[in-house]
Each structure stands twice: as structure tokens, then as C-alpha cells.
Design goal:
Blueprint lengths: L3 H6 L5 H16 L9 E3 L9 E3 L5 E8 L5 E6 H9 L5 E7 L5 E7 L9 E3 L14 E5 L9 E5 L2 E2 L2 H10 L8 H17 L3 E3 H5 L2 H7 L6 H14 L3 E5 L2 E4 L7
Parallel strand pairs: 3-5
Antiparallel strand pairs: 1-2, 2-3, 4-8, 5-6, 6-9, 7-8, 9-10, 11-13, 12-13
Helix pairs in contact: 5-8
The structure holds zinc ion.
The site of zinc ion (ZN) has 8 residues, from loops.
Length: 258
């Protein structure tokens, strides 16, 4: 059966244009703010890559859509402006929307802006001398590096997630907003390693077993274990995990469903 969008989109010649028109109209008609569940409206005079704004909490969202599924790597725009907007804490939240060949939305995940840290921005090779924009350098976002907390599922397998679950998942990591982007790199990496352990209760030794991955993300740091211990304390202070006894921890909200 043809989706309601196919007729509407027939008038657009370019695939990129069709994708844009479709995904924007879909979000406007079907998606509410993952933070407060109010309507999202399109941002006029789009600046700073903000496509939608929540009519209640004023949160801003950038929409990225793809026919087929996003993998761990999401292409983005200019490297320099991405990094400077992260440093100035001016990023909107990100919405990742996947749709099928016949324009049905398969999944939507929201990436809260607190998870957009420099460590996940990978520079692409600058455009060569023969290109119109020679020297311009784009970037990719390594979303795969984020803990599952950094992808709040709003639609899964064509079905909207219950509002309460979306809001709870969003709220759990809002504490990250209190930290500067330079600090959030370590905190989100630690969350990611802890989630990888996969159990509700875990030990410091389990975290240290993943030390080499932390070293890979921060190659210049000579005190990886110390940094990891500090982040566990931050996560304890913010109620994301609790200390049970010396060297043993428990995730406060358990292991997220996958
Ligand atoms: Zn809102």
C-alpha cells in the first residue's frame, strides 16, 4: 500500500528534497518533545542547525533522516563549526529518523545534546584542490561510541514508545548538562564502558578491564584509571549509580532494555 506521503512527494525531483520534505512534515505531525511531550514546531529562519523548537520547554532539535538504518557513524556538516558549537554549548539536540523505501518511519532516536562531545566528532579528509569548496572539511559523528543513554528511542520498529518511558530515559541523563563539554567526554565514555559490562552490579575491576578503550579515546591521558574512578564518583553523586561496598557498584535504574 502506498503511504500517504508518496503522492505528496511525487512533485519533488531531487531525492534529497523529498527526504527533507517528508521527514520534516512527519516530525511536525507525529513527534512530540522527548523532554516534556509538547508539540514541536518548525524553526523559522533556521540558525545553528536548529530545525524544530519545543513550544513549551523551548528545546531545539536538529533533524537527520535516512532511508534505511543509521549505523554507528552519522555524517554531519563542517568539522570546525561542529567543534566550536560543542565548545560553546550551543548545540541543539539531535533527532535521528530512519524510514523505508515507501516512506514509513521505522525508528526515531533522540540524542540529547549533552552527549555531543568532541570525542565523537571525526574529521573527514578536506576536499581536494579540484573541488569547488577546496579545503572544506566535513565530519562524521561516531554515535556508536555513546552509551545507550545517549539514544533515547521515540519510535522503534514503526511503533511509538510510551511517552513515560521516553521522558524517563531523557531525564536520567539531564544531569550531564551541568558539566562543560570538555568534562562530558570522560563522563559519557565511562557511562558507555559501564553499560558495556552489561550487568546491574559490577566491580571496579570490570571497569578497568575496559581501560584500553578509554586510552584509545583519550590517547594523551596518562592517568586513565584515576580518571575513570573520578567519573564513577560523578555518576554516584548524580544518582546514576550507587556504591555498594568498596569497589562494587550498582546502576540505579538498572540495565536499559535493548
Ligand atoms: Zn519540550
Amino acid at each position: 500500500m502506498a503511504s500517504q506521503y508518496e503522492l505528496m512527494l511525487a512533485q519533488y525531483k531531487s531525492g534529497a528534497q523529498r527526504a527533507r520534505v517528508f521527514s520534516e512534515s512527519w516530525v511536525e505531525a507525529n513527534l512530540n518533545c522527548p523532554k516534556c511531550n509538547h508539540r514541536l514546531s518548525r524553526t523559522r529562519n533556521n540558525t545553528m542547525a536548529r530545525d524544530f523548537t519545543c513550544e513549551s520547554c523551548r528545546a531545539g532539535f536538529e533533524l537527520k533522516s535516512k532511508k534505511g538504518l543509521f549505523g554507528a557513524i552519522v555524517p554531519d556538516g563542517a568539522y570546525d563549526s561542529m567543534v566550536s558549537s560543542i565548545r560553546s554549548d550551543q548545540r541543539p539536540h539531535l533527532l535521528l529518523l530512519n524510514y523505508t523505501q515507501d516512506y514509513r518511519v521505522q525508528s526515531v532516536a533522540a540524542v540529547p545534546r549533552q552527549f555531543l562531545v568532541e570525542e565523537i566528532v571525526i574529521p573527514r579528509r578536506p576536499l581536494g584542490a579540484h573541488c569547488r569548496r577546496a579545503g572544506w572539511r566535513g565530519c562524521n559523528l561516531n554515535i556508536g561510541m555513546l552509551p545507550p543513554d545517549g539514544r533515547v528511542c521515540c519510535v522503534t520498529d514503526f511503533k511509538a514508545e510510551p511517552t513515560e518511558r521516553v521522558r524517563a530515559a531523557w531525564t536520567r541523563s539531564e544531569f550531564l548538562d551541568e558539566y562543560r563539554s570538555s568534562q562530558r567526554g570522560w563522563i559519557t565514555l565511562t557511562m558507555s564502558l559501564v553499560r558495556r559490562i552489561g550487568t546491574e552490579t559490577f566491580s571496579l575491576r570490570d571497569v578497568y578491564a575496559l581501560e584500553s578503550e578509554a586510552q584509545l579515546a583519550f590517547p594523551d591521558n596518562l592517568h586513565v584509571r584515576e580518571k575513570l574512578r573520578q567519573q564513577l564518583q560523578v555518576l554516584r553523586d548524580k544518582g546514576w549509580l550507587e556504591f555498594l561496598s568498596r569497589g562494587t557498584y550498582r546502576l540505579t535504574h538498572g540495565v536499559p532494555p535493548q
